[in-house]
Amino acid sequence: MSFACVKRKDNFKTVEQFHFKLDFLILSFFITTNANPLRFLHFLTIFSLISSFHSSFSSSSSSSSSSSPSIHDLLVSRGLPKGLLPKEVKSYTLSDNGTLQVFLDEPCLTKYENRVFFNTVVTANLSYDSLIGVVGLSQEELFLWLPVKDIIVDSPKLGLILFDIAVAYKQLSLSLFEEPPHCKPQGTSMALIKLIPTIMFSLV
After folding, report:
1. ∠ CA(149), CA(121), CA(196), 5° rounding?
2. What is the CA angle 147-126-112, rounded to 5?
3. Which uninterrupted H or E stretch holds 135?
4. Mode of pairing for the β-strands spanning 150-155 and 130-141
5. Three-state SS for 183?
6. Which pTM does this prediction carry?
7. What confidence score (pLDDT) does residue 186 get?
8. For the segment 27-49, what is each residue's pLDDT rounded down to a tens digit?
9. Which residue, 125, 201, 121, is CA-closest to 165?
């Protein structure tokens, strides 16, 4: 009851202000009810320990969540457009050697200039201005699905980005990648069909 009243009447800007107010209310309660001082001291010690633990946990959670940028912010920090990867990216990992793994819930299809297919896992070596050795990304060219091997910001001043699609290099406008696109889910069978050219080219 006291907590509801405090929450309704006061706007606490920090956790410490709230704990101070709550401590004051507890102290007032024990004084007015003539409670045993030893019991009060024991209770207050336990309460303080719980409060300290809660504050430390909240701080560590906040710092850990803020320390990992989104995949799109990561791309921008490495000189790449954030629209290279779709909004549907679930998570990613980045190792010390630069290996980037991007995870989606399921294979999906989107479009830049042509249609592009993302597998459930997309892997590449991330360096400044480039994604090298891409696996899990294909682009449609003349009704064929060709694997995208490398993506390089070729001429940032000219607003161009280079796609290595195994049989050729293709320059695209960076304006196509200004925002992360929506990616339409694809079935497993369709995903396997689109991956066949990727497997063939990897064996060459």
Report:
1. 60
2. 45
3. strand 130-141
4. antiparallel
5. coil
6. 0.62
7. 85
8. 565 566 565 666 656 656 665 65
9. 201
HSE-CB at 41 with a 13 A cutoff on CA atoms is 3
* Token pair 């360096």 in the structure block, residue: 127
Q: Decide if 165 contacts 147 (C-beta within 8 A).
A: yes
Which 3 state secondary structure label does DSSP give 102?
Answer: strand
Give the helix/strand (H/E) hosting 181.
none
SS (H, E, C) the chain: CHHHHHHHHCCCCCHHHHHHHHHHHHHHHHHHCCCCHHHHHHHHHHHHHHHHHHHHHHHHHHHHHHHCCCHHHHHHHCCCCHHHCCCCEEEEEECCCCEEEEEECCCEEEECCCEEEEEEEEEEEEECCEEEEEEEEEEEECCEEEECCEEEEEECCCCEEEEECCCCEEEEEHHHHCCCCCCEECCHHHHHHHHHHHHHHHHC
Distance between CA atoms of residues 204 and 199, nearest Å: 9
pLDDT, position 65: 40
30 vs 37: CA distance, rounded Å: 8
> What token pair was written down for 41?
């001291």
- List, run by run, the mean pLDDT of 10-residue segments along the chain (204 residues): 41 50 58 60 61 49 58 96 96 96 96 94 97 96 92 89 91 95 79 53 48
Helices 2-9 + 15-32 axis angle, to 10: 140
Residue pair 161/152 in contact (Cβ under 8 Å)? The answer is yes
